[in-house]
Amino acid sequence: MARMKFLCDAERCIECNACVTACKNEHEVPWGINRRRVVTIDDGIPGEKSISVACMHCTDAPCQAVCPVDCFYTTADGVVLHDKDICIGCGYCFYACPFGAPQYPQEGAFGARGKMDKCTFCAGGPEEDNSAAEVEKYGRNRLAEGKLPLCAEMCSTKALIAGDGDIVADLFRSRVVRRGGRPDNWGWATAYKD
Amino acid sequence: MSASAAMTNRKKTSLWAMLIIVLAILVLPLTGYLYVSVTDQPTAVEQTNPRADTWRQVREGNKGYSAVTGQETNVLIQGAGQNWRQLRNGPIATYGAWLLSGVLVILAAFYLLRGEVKLNHPRTGRTVERWTLNERRLHWTTATLFILLAITGLSLLYGRYALIPLLGYPGFSAYATAAKWIHNVLGPVFMVALFIILIKWFKQNLFTKVDIQWFKDFGGMIGDKHPSAGKFNGGEKLWFWTLASAGVALCFSGLVLDFPNFGQERFVIIVAHLIHILTAMLLMAFSLGHIYIGTIGTEGALEGMTTGHVDVAWAEQHHDLWLKELEQQEQNPKH
């Protein structure tokens, strides 16, 4: 089974925020919530770097560990999902998450939290694949249709890549090797045929 | 002889010359380092890898820029959450459970060994008023809120392990939704009640010399001594000051957690949560002792808080100075 991973190539991301917009449109995410965001470090200074970040679907997910009602589960593809019918909106996953992925629609006075919403790796929730209930709560289930997350699929510079971790790593490794105008693997072109 | 002396001299001179030349060959090239270290010291420190600097910034949780507005959206990684997770799920949950169950076991063992602290003299039938109706209302309101908050709070910490197997996921979720609502709404109400108590009984709870003897005699709980006490004995005062310190910290940290609309950052929330959970554990452990002494631990103690009146024999045994005060007031009604 594949182990799904996201990877954002900081050398390629141009902070266009198209991944943010695409995600919001694809899943009809509630007002005020963005499952993905782009953060720029040293904005406006030479050498600035941008990273698109969402739920990273951690192996030992902190959100899962601290949830008082145990509403998280990891799929066979390594995607961390949650059950909104079980979620009580306590905010603990937001405290624990290193990436700031969990977000809450405001429900009631004083910023009372509604049911948590986060990136699903375009894999929906516990409901039947692409049923009306699933689309309503979690957005579209592209993985069930054999497609990868939309944010990565439509990234114009292919900075954001999503998919099986091994393939993503190979892809990134080949990029690193060829970076800077010419290959850094000196002698390979002369020595090897492919 | 002079020729050989001249020879020795020449040898000496050439030996010295050789030594000086070798030393110069060794030392002179090093002056370059000296020059560089004197002139280029500041720039040598500044030269770090710019890419490493970027990721160091990210790892330290420094803020960048994000077009997405919202709570801390410009922070890529916050590290405090992992520490919080490990503290909460690890030592706090473990030792908290040991603390509360340990106190229960100790109280049960104490009850079996010591039994109820009986009245030494038979009831006189005469009673004095210990708590007015308003004081009792205040006490029971705070007590009820405390117990509700304790049960709902413990449910959020231990419910996943203790209640999900009983209620199932949907069942516990429904209960936890209600528990969260009750905890969040009643918390500030408890705070108001607690603060009224702290202000109302502040003066009478200042420690005096009498209390030192009270603690030395273990409040009369161990042994047969009857240490003196005013309206509040040493133990009650200790409970008061625990509430005045840990209880106040509990309330304010609770407010930080209860009102996310002010946009407090996760680090602040996490610290508040740790303070909240630690002070809550302390108060719950203490409250078990308070409840034990006030009910089955002491004969005639509960009457004071239910009917408002206590028997004179009870007052004489447990709060002798307070009884004397009351008697003096009766004789001189002006004071």
Automatic annotation (TrEMBL), chain A:
CDD domains: DMSOR_beta_like. This is Formate dehydrogenase iron-sulfur subunit. InterPro entries: 4Fe4S_Fe-S-bd, 4Fe4S_Fe_S_CS, ET_IronSulfur_Cluster-Binding. GO terms for molecular function: 4 iron, 4 sulfur cluster binding; metal ion binding. Pfam families: Fer4_11. The keyword Translocase does not apply. It comes from Methylophaga muralis. It comes from the Bacteria. Keywords: 4Fe-4S, Iron, Iron-sulfur, Metal-binding. Residues 4-34, 78-107 form the 4Fe-4S ferredoxin-type domain. Gene3D superfamilies: 3.30.70.20.
From TrEMBL, chain B:
The chain crosses the membrane at residues 15-36, 92-113, 140-161, 181-199, 238-257, 269-293. GO terms for molecular function: electron transfer activity; formate dehydrogenase (NAD+) activity; formate dehydrogenase (quinone) activity; metal ion binding. One of its GO terms (biological process) is formate oxidation. Gene3D superfamilies: Transmembrane di-heme cytochromes, Chain C (1.20.950.20). One of its GO terms (cellular component) is formate dehydrogenase complex. Residues 130-308 form the Cytochrome b561 bacterial/Ni-hydrogenase domain. InterPro entries: Cyt_b561_bac/Ni-Hgenase, Di-haem_cyt_TM, FDH_cytochrome_b556_subunit, Formate_DH_gsu. It is a multi-pass membrane protein. It comes from the Bacteria. It is found in: Cell membrane. Keywords: Cell membrane, Electron transport, Heme, Iron, Membrane, Metal-binding, Transmembrane, Transmembrane helix, Transport. Its cofactor is heme. Belongs to the formate dehydrogenase gamma subunit family. This is Formate dehydrogenase, cytochrome b556(Fdo) subunit. It comes from Methylophaga muralis. The gene is fdoI.
